[in-house]
Amino acid sequence: MASKTSLRRTLRAYQIYGANTNVGKTIMSTIICKAFKRQFPSQNVWYLKPISTGPLDEADYRHIARFSPETKTKCLFQFDEAVSPHIAARSSKYLSDSEVRDEVLAHLMACSEAGEGTLLLETAGGVHSPTPSGSSQADLYRPLRLPICLVADHHLGGISASISAFESLHIRGYDLDTVLQFEDGKYQNHTYLQEYFEQKGISSLSLPPPPPRGPTEEEDQEIMSDYYEKMSKLDKVEEAIFSLSEKHTKRLENLESMSTRANDTIWYPFTQHRDISPQSIVTIDSASGDFFQTYTPTSKAGTLIPTFDGSASWWTQGLGHGNPELSLAAAYAAGRYGHVMFAGAIHEPALQLAESLLHYLNNPRLQKVFYSDNGSTGMEVAVKMALTASFERYKWDVPKEEVGVIGLKGSYHGDTIGAMDASEPSTFNERVHWYKGRGYWFDFPQVKMVRGKWIVEPPEGMKAEFGEVTEFASLAEIFDIQARLGSSAGRKYSKHIEETLNGLINKEGKTFGALVMEPVILGAGGMLFADPLFQHLLASTIRTSPLFPSPPHASPETWTGLPVIHDEVFTGLYRLGTFTPSTLLQSHPDISVHAKLLTGGLVPLCCTAASQSIFDAFLGNEKRDALLHGHSYTAHPVGCQVAVKSIAKMVGMENEGAWDHAKEDWKSGSRLASVSDQAVQAWSVWSKGFVGKVSFSREVESVIALGSVLAIKLQDENSGYSSTAATGLQKKLLEGSDGFKIHVRVLGHVLYVMASQTSRTEALRSIEKTLLDALY
User: Fold this and answer.
1) Largest CA distance in the chain
2) Which ranges in the chain are annotated with CATH 3.90.1150.10?
3) How many Å is the Cα radius of gyration of the chain?
4) Which residue has the higher pLDDT, 57 or 714?
5) How far from the centroid of its chain's Cα atoms is residue 331's Cα?
6) Which residue ranges does the chain devote to CATH 3.40.50.300?
7) Is residue 69 packed enough to be buried (19+ CB in 10 Å), middle (13-18) or exposed (0-12)?
8) Cα separation of 479 and 556, whole Å?
9) HSE-up of 376 (CA within 13 Å, CB side)?
10) Which of 194, 283, 431, 559 could make an S-S bridge to 590, C-beta 3.0–4.6 Å?
11) Quick one: residue 714, left, alpha or beta (phi over 0 = left, psi -120 to 50 = alpha)?
């Protein structure tokens, strides 16, 4: 887990990349080191070579020490064989990227604590030279986001290699501060590249190449010493050094002013601005993996502090911030298509995504995919689909605006008008002038852990309808739906649902056109963990109720009763541990909505999947019979291509057993013998023992954990979204320490922490310890 950061007020740190091998990185580094020492004689200059291969007497850091003796040099990992690091490291202990990065960060910290100065970090070979683990070094060092000095290739073909190197770095979020290049009278790459990079606002420094080698080693050293001395004194070298130093200062000044400028210009979502000040705004310089790098002017350890993204960036983050595979997928589609209109056309990414999503949803009811831009509009589309299909089938003699939906209390489906109307009155919509709230919302029993015990608890005052609090030995037993169908709770649930529907329709004259629900966990409503048995029975009762007569001879894929919509925007795509939470409910929806993790948190996109029988309701002789919904960026190729890659990555992780250790943790100690073969295994990346300890805190009313979701409900007499009970814990986590912070969101008296699907185990264990320290 990252506990240090590369940007420090007292340390100007730069990374030297080469456009290729043998382009003179070390020669340029020597010149830059000597020039920095000349410009800032009272300050330290450090040179770091993280990985070196080849004979020790030929090592780059020894060359620096020989010709720039005032520079403090270091190599972290030396391999004797003069081959690529991934080959040289085979004979040694496996060296992971995180180990290399941690050692680099530790050295940066040590240098910054030694006083003001400059550090050059020289990479090995070209931009994509392999690391000891075999990955690209451009990906290994990306989380550091050090400003880049790129040594261009002055050889034949070097223009292409230099521009390709720049684009590889640029697409990974690196900032290129300057281009360093040797002059070559024959190929004159430096002339072309200087103009090319100037057009992009990037400065360049061209220098005469080093002289030919001397006849003896002693004469060669003397020749090179004279060369370095002359080069480091050149006016244009001094100007380049001043420019690099100035960019470091301006980067800090920009970070320092951002929160004030934002306070003057930005209107934030879901925010009461009376509570906002420049001091409360979190300034994010960059993000990598699960962490933001946040600016902290008062920090003792550094100017940027690694801050865990505890809300998974509003539940979108699944494969790590700045995932290079997703970035490349986006760049590919942007370069191939840009954006193309979609009505009556097709492009490969949209077709691949539709086929892939339908395949992995593994729902025989779903046959069609409709594209939109986010979860709210995807739910708007779903409600339109369902209500139209019901109206076409039942031909109700009521105004269309009187047809409502059936849902769950505490539900939230988005901010568009139709999606908003599908939720009960709440803080989210009570001040919205056009909100009508068309429907009925069932209260439901909730799953939670209280003092080490998993329970299903009826809503307050509804024990007669749902029964007493029931204790379970494990989550697996709660999700053993087939075994629980014949239980007392199952019979009570069915009776309550049937009697309620009968009263609403036959006695109150209500008309409903769809069942809309978030499977298993209701997110924005306060991370409410619905008893999966209740949701299963709600769907099956509505599908079979004589209140909604089914068509004769309907196929198994044809919707019956009312169309069932699953809002999987938050809960889908492994957020709760399975590709679709419908698996946990053992119930197939007629329409399902997918966003957030769909693109791994990179770009907005939503898919609304529907059955053929829903689709057929929009077939007609006139255009007005069609689903007249869409927007300019429907099925934009960039989003579709990223989603294809995102789904493939997550499915691959499951197949490779990426979460097996967490599954084993949640199996241990459970009475699995009492669980039927049809039960779906429930597990969490948050350790079982930790969740139990949290539940015993005096400040905690209950806790839930499933998949990557952890939600802690704190004790509060005034519970609900307007509660401030969780803000104290939220502030404590954000204050953190100089080395590590946790950024989380709260929902009233509920504090939740969201991991990504790629969260490292050691990071999660550190967060668990921090939470326990804060609660006890």
Assistant:
1) 106
2) 282-315+684-776
3) 30
4) 714
5) 18
6) 11-209+226-251
7) exposed
8) 24
9) 8
10) 559
11) beta
